Every structure is written in structure tokens, then in C-alpha cells.
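Kindly inspect this chain:
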Amino acid sequence: MWGFLGGGGGECTKEVRGAHGVGLWVHIRKGWEVFIRYTQIRLGGGTHIKFWYDTWCDHVALKESFPSLFRVARDIDASVVDVLERSGEQLQWNIIFNRVAQDWEMSSIEAFYSLLYATKLDNSQYSLWWIPTVKCTFSVRSFYKSLSQETPIQFPW
């Protein structure tokens, strides 16, 4: 998971315990798992974005979308820059696997590379985008709306 509160590169702030864990940040950290589901990382250079773990090219991390490929990937901690080669305007994804692909894996591999090559990359810095709004900017109202649509809870009133 990409850490808005703790930096970048597949991290999030660690849960705080003890005397220093009091206040607003503790409550923000507790809601991070819910919050991050509504975000997507848009990347530029990709140095801080974990290829398999972060949500950057779809609405879910690649390790979740392609678990069988994740299990045989040689470098599961690689960043996007580690597996992306640029030659002028051409992009080449260089993901190395621990073994040769089996016949039954070909459709998964095709979908995997189709998704990668369909993802548009630019040279700007990476940023966290808020998916529920058209302009991808966060608002408390949109977060409340997302949460209220998530689970229909019946209140006693």
C-alpha cells in the first residue's frame, strides 16, 4: 500500500501505540485502510511506486489482479522504474518470472501485458488521485458519500 502519511514506496505509517499515539493522527491512521481503497496512484517517474503492491494502473494492485503471476515473479518488491525500460518514445515492460509460462497461464499473461501497455505513463511526479470524483480531487463530502454507499446499515431511528 502506498503511504500518504508516511512517505511513498509501498508503505503506510505504522500503527502507533503508547503515549505518542494520542490525537488526530491515530484516528486518521485507523481509517487509512478504508480511505486508500478509493484512491489510485498516478505516476510519472515511478521510482517510489511498487509495481506489484501499489494501485497504479487499475483500481486494484497487480498482485491482487494477477495472483498466479505474482507468485512466480522474480522481484516482487520492484518499483515501476525497475521493470520499465524506455527507448525514446517506446516503452518496454521487463518483468522477469522464476519459470517459463505454462499453456494454461497464457490468457492471464496476455491480460496482464494488455493492462500494462494500456496504462498511460507521463513524466510528471506521482500523486494520489481520489477516484470517486470526476476531477480526482478529495472532498469530505465525496468520502462520506462513498462510505454511505458502501454498506447499507439500518439504524434504529
About this structure: The first helix runs from residue 24 to 30. The first strand starts at residue 39 and ends at 42. Residues 71 and 97 are 9 Å apart (CA to CA). The chain has a mean pLDDT of 74.
